[in-house]
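User: Let's play a game. I give you a shape written as tokens, and you guess the letters that built it. Ready? Here's round one.
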């Protein structure tokens, strides 16, 4: 596919990634008690997904935009874990009679903790909620911190899905981003996880890093395809130096690829993965056809949440640990972002929540519209709005903005239906943003490309 980026430059502006709508920036300060009262009044009985944010990492990757704490003090994880135990107990009443269908450990680096600590964390969850028999128990793994034998211990503890941070295998790129991770180390991690019986392995790569070339990225993709992960996330490098100051090193020392170069890198990866039999999912994910993510795409049950794409439609997410966000049907709420604030709340037996947004009926409809665009790359506006007692006529402003995008070849409109074109996929966030009523007043997003 050829893309003439020159006439699309106007769309390379900061836009949200829409892991949720409204986005995390729409959350405003609140009292924890308000969140508790809202949740207590609902008394839902559906399935639950638990997310744990484990922030510690041994060394700083200069590109990293995650919420993390760099330390060599191994004792920190035990202290953190004990507070997570307390946080679970504080929320226990919400989980009575319900089943946990999914659990995910993200970070930071969950494998900064010892395998015994991670096993203990899983055990703690069993004390507050019953696990569904086929629950997906996932963990983000930095292959640099996975020792021999760890994979077996993790499987024994109950983990069955792993997501490996890889980013790029080229030694020059690795030096530039301050993350030395030889291909052998990644391969050893994949092999040990497979041998331990992990059912699904994901890998994260990033395009748009300094020193990356079409040739070097081609090699990285070939190496990764040879390892045959079930899923791949090929993230666009998000340059947000105001939030992640170490990123300035990349900018000043090496310079960053242009938007045009980034598109070429992604097209190369997408083509090679297509040739290797992977299905392109949503914005930046790829999965083998037999993977549940590909099946969810076919069944139109694919969803997006704060951790990315998910197969678990209609499942509430409850977050634990500093900065984690919970997503229930009509309320999103976030824990204190700083470690000390999260600790202080837990130590005084209070929920560590500091921000929330309550979704209006209109927010919920706009969320469904935005998620349809982000997950299925298509939209039936009349059908979706009808479910909320609205109609496509209520979105005339949005539709006229979409007509401009149609003229640029990003979408095809017919009646009240929309289909994102292959070129439009690069700008799917911009297309979704047309339905976002909060965005005009918000700053701090990474650029579309
Ligand atoms: C929490 S890390 C994964 C686990 C572990 N800490 C590791 O690095 O192996 C989450 C992922 O976010 C992605 N990421 C971090 N900073 C990013 C950025 N600035 N732009 C795009 N992706 C980024 C990386 O692909 C990384 O693997
Ligand atoms: S990419 Fe992973 S290991 Fe590197 S700093 Fe970020 S969270 Fe830590």
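Assistant: Ready! My guess for every position:
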């Amino acid at each position: 596919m050829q893309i003439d980026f020159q006439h699309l430059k106007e769309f390379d502006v900061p836009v949200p990634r829409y892991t949720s709508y409204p986005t995390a920036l729409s959350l405003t300060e609140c009292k924890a008690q308000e969140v508790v009262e809202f949740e207590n009044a609902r008394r839902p009985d559906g399935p639950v997904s638990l997310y744990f944010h484990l922030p510690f990492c041994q060394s700083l990757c200069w590109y990293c935009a995650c919420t993390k704490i760099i330390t060599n003090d191994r004792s920190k994880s035990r202290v953190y874990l004990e507070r997570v135990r307390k946080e679970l107990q504080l929320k226990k009443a919400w989980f009575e009679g319900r089943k946990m269908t999914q659990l995910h450990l993200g970070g930071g680096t969950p494998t900064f903790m010892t395998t015994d600590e991670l096993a203990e964390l899983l055990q703690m969850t069993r004390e507050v909620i019953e696990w569904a028999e086929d629950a997906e128990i996932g963990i983000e793994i930095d292959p640099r911190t996975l020792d021999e034998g760890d994979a077996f211990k993790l499987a024994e503890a109950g983990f069955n899905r792993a997501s490996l941070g890889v980013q790029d295998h080229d030694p020059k790129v690795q030096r530039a981003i301050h993350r030395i991770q030889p291909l052998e180390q990644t391969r050893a991690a994949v092999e040990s996880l497979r041998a331990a019986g992990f059912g699904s392995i994901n890998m994260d790569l990033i395009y748009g890093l300094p020193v990356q070339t079409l040739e070097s990225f081609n090699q990285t993709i070939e190496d990764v395809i040879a390892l045959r992960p079930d899923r791949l996330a090929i993230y666009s490098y998000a340059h947000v130096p105001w939030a992640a100051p170490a990123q300035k090193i990349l900018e000043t020392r090496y310079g960053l690829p242009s938007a045009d170069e980034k598109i070429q890198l992604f097209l190369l990866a997408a083509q090679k993965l297509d040739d290797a039999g992977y299905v392109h999912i949503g914005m930046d994910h790829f999965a083998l056809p037999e993977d549940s993510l590909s099946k969810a795409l076919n069944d139109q049950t694919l969803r997006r949440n704060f951790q990315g794409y998910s197969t678990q439609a209609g499942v509430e997410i409850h977050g634990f640990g500093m900065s984690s966000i919970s997503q229930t049907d009509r309320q999103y709420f976030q824990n204190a972002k700083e470690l000390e604030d999260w600790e202080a709340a837990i130590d005084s037996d209070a929920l560590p929540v500091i921000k929330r947004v309550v979704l209006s009926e209109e927010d919920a409809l706009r969320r469904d519209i935005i998620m349809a665009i982000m997950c299925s790359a298509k939209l039936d506006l009349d059908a979706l709005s009808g479910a909320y007692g609205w109609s496509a006529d209520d979105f005339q402003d949005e539709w006229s903005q979409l007509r401009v995008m149609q003229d640029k070849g990003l979408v095809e409109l017919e009646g009240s239906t929309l289909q994102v074109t292959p070129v439009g996929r690069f700008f799917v966030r911009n297309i979704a943003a047309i339905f976002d009523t909060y965005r005009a007043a918000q700053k701090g997003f990474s650029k579309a490309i």
